[in-house]
Amino acid sequence: MFEAKFQSFADVSSSHDSAARVSALRAELSCHNLDGWLLPRADAHQNEYVPKNAERLAWLTGFTGSAGFAVILRKQAALFVDGRYVIQAPQEIDGRIFKALNIADVSPAQWLAEHAREGARIGYDPWVHTSGQIDRFAKALESRKIELVPLDANPIDALWTDRPPEPSGAIVLHPPRYAGETAAAKIKKLRASLKDADALVMSDPHAICWAFNIRGADVAHTPIALCFALLPKTGAPTLYVDDAKLDRKTRAALEKFLALRPPEALTGDLTQAGKRGETLLFDAATAPVRLVETLREAGGKPRVTEDPASLPKAIKNATELDGARAAHIRDGAALTRFLAWFAQAAPKGGLTEITAAEALETFRRENGDLRDISFPTISAFGEHAAIPHYRVSEKSNLRIGKGVYLVDSGAQYLDGTTDVTRTVVVGRASKQLRDHFTRVLKGHIAIARAVFPKGVSGAQLDAFARRHLWEAGLDFDHGVGHGVGSYLSVHEGPQRISKVSATPLEPGMILSNEPGYYRAGEYGIRLENLVIVEKREIAGAEREMYGFETITLAPFDLVCVEPKLMTGDEIAWLNAYHAQVRKTLSPLVDASTRRWLREATRAI
């Protein structure tokens, strides 16, 4: 009845070969007179979702998370992960080879400074590190006289005998009815930001796809084409991309406003620009140090700064916002159908984490507009729900019984990208669960209702979502919210709601609102909607004020809510939200789902 076409549940994690692979890597490093190797989970664009041939960290360590960093020395090795993966990482790696460490407690540079011998030579691949990353390592290692050595070829690639080929997904045009702005208008904006620089080197495929109104199929779940671009102050931009990704029609459309060159031509073009003494801008977050140094060594002046495309891409235009709202209505209907089905099927037994994920994807596909899921569905029951970025596999798959089920999922539609999390209980909710769930919900409502002046960043709002957990001595180890693209990445910067986000929030930005709580070994709770930053008119206001429009539509599990812990304003918000969900989605679902929805969104 149900099937998954956009995700696999195969067991991709394997640390069985880590010992042999690490031993082979160490032998290769010795040939280069190196004492160690830096290994990030990264490709040449610092993508979150990387092509299969760039999964070097997983190949060596067995760790399959979306963020990680390994340091391999001659006698010891460490894997660094953030709070999302502190439970997952030790389960996937060989603890005899790698020590798993929380990057919040110790950074790779700190660990290396403490464990490498004085004067050690540590190798790295300059295509998968940024200038800032290497500069931070160099500063931390300076006192120990540890040298960082770039290699022209990554030694892991030579050892990885069955390494997948470079991706060659087709590039398609993203039409104005979805983009809302022409490529010419976007290029004009970017040129205005160059100021006294001669050109911009674009290394973020998301920014390139946004600027040129194209989409690709080179990585899972995010419609980007892996490519680089050069945008001069005058003249046509150059897109460096594999010609195999372009059909005749797309090539002709692009050649009307840019030049097409193969990717390998970029370093030569930067060398020529350097010889002319040009000043080029590089994106600090994504530009490989190899490109920056290529220009510098040729006599040019690299200027490493924030990508000028980052902010305009984040501030969605009216067409993109309308598309996001429409996508969320369709997506909300699919998710509500799933939740109604789950409420009936789960108590009967027989469901597993995988069958639930397959069902949700099927409901979304039945919309007829689904292009892909926006990330692998987190379908987690019981103790697995306490792992924030749990990925169900055939090996880990749990049967769903009485207890907590968390589903974090999203979809890619031509008019918008979605991301939503709901936590439900099968059976009765304990007093403890209702307490924890309601505290998370209160944090979610606090963000949804927040009003703040222009210039406020996500860091200033982060505590709104944590206050009620803190009052009970609880917290969670991930940010409250991330930016979301427009039929692009489900995780988009520079905007975030987190303790470290300094980017001011501006109208048109889309963010997630997803506080959580995770009780290791028992259950996890996360409640996520997407919101749009909007202007707020307040009588007598002395400053320009902003707030959030919630665009995700799906009911929260009222069985888990403890009204006695909520204020009147919080209950009013929840009732109004559920009334909106019921009114908007009822015409889009079948009769049995409507009956369930009426009860699921009843006023409390």
Question: How is this structure best summarized?
Answer:
By secondary structure, the protein is an alpha+beta fold.
Number of helices: 19
Shape: globular
Q: Which architecture name of the largest domain does CATH use? A: Alpha-Beta Complex
- The radius of gyration over CA amounts to 25 Å
Please state the structural category: alpha+beta
As laid out across the biggest beta sheet, the strand order is 4-3-2-1-5-6
| Beta strands, count | 28
**Structural domain tally:** 3
CATH level-four homologous superfamily name of the largest domain: Creatinase/methionine aminopeptidase superfamily
Mean pLDDT: 96
The CATH first-level class of the largest domain comes to Alpha Beta
State the main characteristics.
604 residues, single chain, Creatine Amidinohydrolase, 28 strands, 6-stranded mixed sheet, Creatine Amidinohydrolase, Chain A, domain 1, 19 helices
Blueprint (SSEs and pairs):
Blueprint: H1 18-31, E1 36-40, H2 56-61, E2 69-73, E3 77-81, H3 88-92, E4 99-102, H4 108-115, E5 121-124, H5 131-141, E6 147-150, H6 155-159, E7 172-173, H7 176-179, H8 183-192, E8 199-202, H9 205-212, E9 214-215, E10 228-232, E11 238-240, H10 248-254, E12 259-261, H11 265-275, E13 279-283, H12 289-297, E14 301-305, H13 310-314, H14 318-345, H15 353-365, E15 372-373, E16 378-381, E17 403-409, E18 411-413, E19 416-417, E20 420-426, H16 431-448, E21 452-453, H17 467-470, E22 481-483, E23 492-497, E24 510-513, E25 516-519, E26 523-526, E27 529-536, E28 545-550, H18 568-585, H19 591-600
Helix pairs in contact: 4-5, 11-12, 14-15, 14-19
